[in-house]
Amino acid sequence: MQPQPLDDLVEAVLSRPDYHHISVDLVRWIGRQEIGKRRNLKEAVKFTRSRLHQIAAAYQEPRVEYGRWLEELSSLPHELDDPRLKDFCRRVMAHHASTRERLPILELFFNRTLSRIAPLHSILDIGCGMNPLALPWMPLAEDITYYGLDIYSDQAAFLNAFLSHTGVSGSVQVHNVLNGLPYNLPRTQVALLLKTLPCLEQLDKTISGRLLETIRASHLVISYPVHSLGGRSKGMLQNYQNHFDILAGQLGWTAERLEFQTELVFIVEL
Ligand SMILES: C[S@@+](CC[C@H](N)C(=O)[O-])C[C@H]1O[C@@H](n2cnc3c(N)ncnc32)[C@H](O)[C@@H]1O
Questions:
Q1: Which domain holds residue 98?
Q2: Are residues 240 and 118 in the same domain?
Q3: Closest Cα to residue 98, out of 71, 125, 73, 78?
Q4: From the CA of 235, how far away is ligand 1's center (Å)?
Q5: pLDDT at position 3
């Protein structure tokens, strides 16, 4: 395939407001495959957009109000345990489908998944979405460093402003993990992959094992959704149990299993 059609596809996809801030690397990754499969560029653009919708845009609202949130954040206290800051975090997390469904169990979720590893000094959060805003509910050490990876530059800028406002070291990077992890990531105490693997597998069925093998962390917290975005369960619990069992078998892992009303979680000590 010639580079020109791929450049044209990337430009066409990014021209839509919904996809404007998405990682160029991911658009190229999907576009390269779609150009190989589709009859013409127009179709390849259409299918690239639809893949991006499935794995990322479907979780976001069409117009995300980062400007207004940043303004509000600037007038809020800096302490993670301040009730006004926590109220802000909850309200903003409600604008991302994945964090929204965790809100009713936020406290319980991080208590049960992370307190055994606490206090947390370092976290890697792969496909983090708005999860950095859940830091106030995590059992953190004073010197916590947080590294988040996701694919939206406007979201990363907002989350980096949040980290800096609250004095948490680290950053959220725009990074397409289908091409592996950033080479300069330090080893962390825990790596979170909260509902991320099913998204990645929609584009690459073999990514999970390869990605998990390269993570340098003492503990992994891997979760799967129990309901689809539309609210149906369709045997998802059993399917994802099987999915994890196969991965754990391949990697020689034993894991602790926790089941919440919206999420199935496995905790692995490496
Ligand atoms: C189901 S959401 C989970 C978000 C968050 N972990 C949570 O539980 O709230 C999946 C996340 O993976 C991100 N994602 C999808 N494909 C990705 C990729 N190739 N590289 C990095 N992140 C990706 C999406 O943007 C989205 O934020």
A1: 66-269
A2: yes
A3: 125
A4: 22
A5: 56
